[in-house]
Amino acid sequence: MGGRRLIKAAALLIVLGYSSLLVYQGGVNFNFQDTRANVQVAELSIEPVTKTNVYESGQNRNITLSDIFISVKTTKHYQYTRLPIILKTWFQLAKEQTWFFTDTDNRQHQDQTNGHMVNTNCSASHQRKHLCCKMSVEYDRFLESGKKWFCHFDDDNYVNIPQLVNVLQTYNHKEDWYLGRTSVYEPVKIFKKPTNKLMFSFWFATGGAGFCISRSLALKMLPVASGGRFISICEGIRLPDDVSVGFIIEHLMKKNLTLVPEFHSHLEQMKLLPPETFRSQISFSYSKIKDEWNVVNVPGFDTRYDPTRFLSLHCFLFPHFKFCPR
């Protein structure tokens, strides 16, 4: 009965036609375009300014790395820039648990990952529909895996694998958990035209920082998200993949996002993260705005060799790797 209600609710929302809705994020009109190149780094804070309540369910030391399904969204456009950095660093700590969801076939990377490159057959475009296509495949693959946690990241993330495991051990995968970090200061608000009446609002965890969903919650999403239904939801509400995940979980499922500030995206000032906190962080990111890099401040390799600072960060956290300076 619960599944039928969810399907009916989703169908009703799609039929409403979200072309008649105004979507606001952070108090301004939000067109959901990819604006990474236009981010003004100086205007963004690294400290969370929204939801601050983290509800833990006690230690769950039975969770190990093998219980986690780690998905990384990537594309052929970055297969020779972003991907090699991941393969050289944090992927080496989670080879069996990490899967890459891309839009091309690359025999070299398939060999390097032991068959963990998944050609989603989605477009390489950064448009909403194509991003949602990849997320849909990620979600379905997680369901097939039987793992206890689904953790999504982007190809510009560095994932601190030991800390990811540590944090997930403080939550129960048999309960409904949506863990992540927002990139906005207010929830997404849906207004109805022409009255501009607020219909509902919801938070979402930005995919650029990474997020995790417990298996219990993921299974409840199945009636509206599995088998390509997630793409239909995205198209029906006209929102990107990570926002659509938040829509399903917070609005349809009525489950709240739990803020975990140890996730980080390129929308933050990475240089403000103190090095003494690096080991307690889950994810890091980077971006380049014109000629200026937004990266963590970590000693190590020359910036000409390591502009993203991910190689240096990896050696800071795991100095035993062979490529690290002695």
From TrEMBL:
Gene3D superfamilies linked: 3.90.550.50
The protein's name in its UniProt record: Fringe-like glycosyltransferase domain-containing protein
Molecular function (Gene Ontology), one example: glycosyltransferase activity
Family indicated by similarity: Belongs to the glycosyltransferase 31 family.
Primary localization class, coarse: membrane
Domain Fringe-like glycosyltransferase as annotated: residue spans: 62-309
Annotated compartments: Endomembrane system; Membrane
Native organism: Leptosia nina
Superkingdom classification of source: Eukaryota
Membrane topology: Single-pass membrane protein; Single-pass type II membrane protein
